[in-house]
Amino acid sequence: MRKPFVAGNWKMHKTTSEAIELIDELQPKIEDLSNVEIVFCVPFTCLSVTAEKLHQSKIGVGAQNVHWEKQGAYTGEISPLMIKEFGNYVIIGHSERRSLFGETNETVNKRMIAALNNDLIVIVCVGESLQENESGKTEEVITQQMRIAFSDVPPNQLNNVVIAYEPIWAIGTGLACDPNKANEIIKYSIRKPLIEMYGEKIANETRVLYGGSVKGSNAKEYFIQPDIDGALVGGASLKLEFVEIVRAAA
Predict the structure, then answer these.
(1) What is the average pLDDT across 116-120?
(2) 188 by DSSP, 3-state: which?
(3) Catalytic one among 37, 67, 94, 103?
(4) pLDDT digits over 10-62, tens only?
(5) 166 is catalytic
(6) Domain at 135, CATH number
């Protein structure tokens, strides 16, 4: 059985004091849910206070991006070693990083290899645009993203990888992908390439999340799908509504 996994992606929200307030609101309500893995992926400036607040908690701490070098002349970047001081998780290849900041399939692969080689747990995102979806290119696009992202990633590191299917057209738009359709895309565009690259055992053990306008009101519809193991939650992770999503996964 794949353990359900819910990650809150806070994006560019919350000062350190606001982060403490949000954790104080959410943590008591989800702390005792043992049969779901929970992670807060926070802005870099909040990593320290979040790690301190969750020091003895089962809730994990993650960052939202990582560079592929351990150190160097990379102004504005953060290395795997810097993240490891505070947390064990990192989001890589989020659609906003790809569309707004020029990340490519190849740089996603470089970040992923670096993160895994430094013992971070990777939440790697894949997904198609609205135009690609409407022109029937979803499987082609996501399969290519998968193949390049996992290039030179050895099988023994797959236990530290979680995949998030995030249709770009559903991110922050309020337009959620139909749960049955999301499950179908995950089955044929994510698990199928995994089977081809790593075999059925690893593909069946790898957790795949859905992300894109997940709410307390629709989360359960996704979690009952056989190939969806949880959610990467954006806006709703900043509200009490996140508790409903976590409980639905549990």
Answers:
(1) 98
(2) helix
(3) 94
(4) 999 999 999 999 999 999 999 999 899 999 999 999 999 999 999 999 999 99
(5) yes
(6) 3.20.20.70
